[in-house]
Amino acid sequence: MDQRSVSPHVLILPFPIQGNVNSMLKLAELLCLAGIQVTFLNCHYPHHCLLSYSNVQARFSRYPGFRFETISDGLPMEHPRTAEQFLDIVDGVKTTTAPLFMEMMISWCRSTSDTRPPLTCIIADELMTFATDVANEVGLPIVFFCAISACSFWAYCSFPQLIEAGEVPITGDDMDRLVSVPGMEGFLRRRDLPGSGRVNDAAYPGLQNIVKIFQQVQRAHALVINTFDDLEGPVLSQIRDHCPRTYAVGPLHAHLKSKLASETSTSQSSNSFRKEDKSCIPWLDRQPPKSVIYVSFGSLAIITKDELRELWHGLVNSGSRFLWVIRPDALVGKDEERQTPAELLEGTNDRGCVVGWAPQEEVMQHPAVGGFLTHSGWNSTLESIVAGVPMICWPYFADQQINSRFVSHVWKLGMDMKDTCDRVTVEKMVRDLMEEKRAEFMKAADTMATSVKKSVSEGGSSYCNLGSLIEEIRLLSA
Ligand code: UDP
């Protein structure tokens, strides 16, 4: 007997930055394809960017059960939003979005005149932990979404034990000393700890704040993580010991692509906040197969002019071809200091191409791309893994420090350049990645790319986990 009386209707609440909105939109689309109604509650700024530079509106118009709603994050539209202002965004959602969300949900859930079907579940970004109080107030189950890797999630969850053992906060300057995150004891060093676990990671919310966030997240009804079992199986089982309903459904962009491939629609799923400079695609078309190293540090990381120069000299001296994304707001300093030095742009000749923002998923899949110099943001890491492209990691903050350790030490998909940026090291690493050690990295990258395909295909782990998540969401509305 079918007991389902209300059709499932999920409210999705992302943290307002590029990587998180991007992956939650992919999850939203996967749920829409399964016939679940979705309200995507986006902050004004990302929503405005998406409408200006991506094709989301056209793409989602094919799902009658989908709609966007917007809410304020308390910051003016013109507020800069690089890693330097990350805490402003955290603060904004806490002081402005949280109370507005409470009001909005009380009015939606208690209104008798609302024509929309009632909500049956909230899926909130793990950085929007205030959603727990709101969910409790209106009597809805809460599921948290991790836009970060399972290894970083698990390291954050282990902070209370590390604090108790006196390992965090770090004292002294031996950053290579091992730390005892369960399951990572033999290889995780202090310098690999995510977020405020590292003394110098000042741009991330304070330690006690982090502890609270992750304790709260573990108490949710379920967890959805953008990863897959073949990549992070051992860590996922540690997490599942604490949160049995943990669904690893990623890589979401590959999963969505696989589901859409079985349809006639061929819509490209760009969720970009910035105008993509597509001129790099014809440039890539002219380069030999696997000859180009793609260089990009995501949407938030900032670098100094000195670092930029060291990277540039290292790249040029390596003799490799490169495609480099230098965002207009990527350089530390005020507007006038933010100009990329002209000699760098002119000195690339035709071996280098520089753009302000690239269609990254398309770039990663291009046959000319053979390596990725990345900041190890989780979306970028997954995009590289899916494309079978090995990496040089130069992490900036948050989860990136631990992701790069896993890329190099555990998955053997590249090298970790953490805490170093000099032209000699850059040159050597690029040569190793693109020439000397190419065969070994390519072997590991090909194997992992094959695992991805299996996991998102019928019967694969992410495919089945998504099925279980959908079933769970349906049960919540019964
Ligand atoms: N991205 C892009 N074009 C660029 C640089 C980045 O489309 O020129 C996208 C990239 O594909 C990824 C996201 O921006 O999906 C960045 O997310 P990630 O988690 O890697 O890093 P973050 O920006 O959060 O540091």
UniProtKB/TrEMBL annotation:
The keyword Protein transport does not apply. Keywords: Glycosyltransferase, Transferase. It holds the Pfam family UDPGT. One of its GO terms (molecular function) is quercetin 7-O-glucosyltransferase activity. This is Glycosyltransferase. PROSITE patterns: UDPGT. It comes from Vitis rotundifolia (Muscadine grape). It catalyses: 7-deoxyloganetate + UDP-alpha-D-glucose = 7-deoxyloganate + UDP + H(+). Its EC number is 2.4.1.-. Belongs to the UDP-glycosyltransferase family. It comes from the Eukaryota. InterPro entries: UDP_glucos_trans, UDP_glycos_trans_CS. The lineage of its organism: Eukaryota, Viridiplantae, Streptophyta, Embryophyta, Tracheophyta.
